[in-house]
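DM between two lab members

TW: hey, do you still have the S-layer protein C-terminal domain-containing protein entry open?
JB: yeah, one sec
JB: this one, 601 aa:
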Amino acid sequence: MKKNLRIVSAAAAALLAVAPVAAGTVSTASAATEGVSTRAFDPSLANVGASINVRNAEGINGGENVSVLRFYSHLDRVNDNVPSVGITDGGSTTVYLAADVTTDSNGEVTVSATAKPVTTLQANTQYVVVKTLVQITGLKAKQKYNLNVNGGTKTIETNANGVSGTFDLAQAFTTSKKAFIGAPYVYLNGTNTRVSSGSVGLVKGFYSVDAVVRSIIAKYGVGVDTAAGVGGSANGTIKGEFSQLTQDVRDGLSKAVTLNSDGTFAKPSSSITFPVTIQAGNNTESFFVTVSPEAIDVDFSFPRIRFAGDAAGVVHAGSGDVVNVNGEGFNYVALNGTVNVPLISNRFSATMSENNSTAIPVKVDASKVNTKVAGVYPVTVSATNAEGKTSSVLFYITVGDAGATYVTVQADIDNVPVYEINGNIVTDTKTTVKNGDKIATYGTVTVNGKSYTRINSADSTKFVETKYVDGSTKPVAATPKTVMHNSYIYDKDHKRVGTNKLAAYSTVNVYGTTTKLADGSLVYKIGDNQYVMADNIDGTARVLSHNAYVYKTSKKRADRRVLKKGSTVVTFGSPYTFKNGKAYYRIGGPAKQYVKVANFK
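TW: and the structure you got?
JB:
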């Protein structure tokens, strides 16, 4: 390959100016080298062609190392009777700025003497990849061919083994324009109006991370810019989303207010502004949200809810109001008793909207009340009008001893087991309390070196582990993940927990990052002393030692793909043995996709 300054033809310059993106046919390559002449097209000779493609230029956003690019050299056409023709990988593969590479009518490549190989890619930039010392094999021995490469034609002659002399290939490509293609943006739900920043208000009694997250999701959505305009996805696959909204809200609020373990906080004295991350594929942006200490989105079309225990004239609209039910006949429930839903319904009423006094029914949701465990629990009363708009209010009722000391459950899991303890025998009751519940406690006991805290009453035999009520365990957000392989549940000693298993393609909440069991197995925590193998969720990257088909059964292929030798494939879980006796790894789903174990290193 020539690497010097030279003047190229106007045709070659024009060719570079319109070089196609990514996988288009290139117009930039190949110098006269061993066994290759520079004679033009000869109609008496058979034709062979070759090119190199860049497969993932559209996924480059800027800042990536050039090694992330994927290249594919291939034959374009051979009009001679040579069934075993092929192409060699050649020598080096180098990326240059497009301005540093030119070609001529013979398909020869010239790289400027001052050109430097690209190491870091930029967005919306034209490049050329140059592959040197390529050869075509399997041709007829001692025969001349027209070689069509890089938009030009030259004559080549094979040796006694039917192998051509060496030549170079080149391909022009352009990286994606991050600000236009595939970039995330935020819009108002309902109107799809694009916004550059957001604002939500706090409503009375709902001062919590979860309440702010819900308000943001209710008001805003994330879309993706596409080449055709804007839409919910790019190329039908890349979706816009708030990638870590709960964590961003928690981080933003914590810089201005003190957060309790359950994410609640005191009403702030002024507005709080912080960034949240929006994402579309590999593209991420920051979207700034301002949280006002007062409600800012008032809608008079929502139902109006009234509580008989309120002062005259008090009405509730929208969501977030908390009412005081002290002294009401339903605010206390005996242990193992029943919530008096009919009485609650009688004390609340609702009308269609601010300007429509037509009565509508209220709905009482007491599903979060655990009458088996003494504590303080939320109840929601809501009403939905003919427009489908819902208003709601919240109040708390007490289960068990109203005069007890209540503590907040702080756990790194959603559901904390309740145990029965008789003597030194500890039995799981299959009852749980939820992270964030406020429960009554009555001292501790130690059994087999583990501390338990008594709940419900002073003479109760029900306990929870002390670590969940003494503040020593810090809450961890649950992250939903897809299980890609049928999975058993294990304890910390890698012993199975029960007989149940998680089905492939089901969703499970995991807590924190991966951890290791006593034997070193990498796992995710999914519950109290309950773990699932991380390989069944995240998979394991493996390198193919052979080209491989993707199967759905032992006899039928899943699709027409051929996974290339040397490529990396993520497999999930241990292998399956098919009816033909061969072992296969699962590589995707829910459609069946398997690759033979024998094809991996």
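TW: got it. The chain has six domains: 10-174, 184-292, 317-366+376-393, 406-468, 478-536, 540-599. The radius of gyration is 34 Å.
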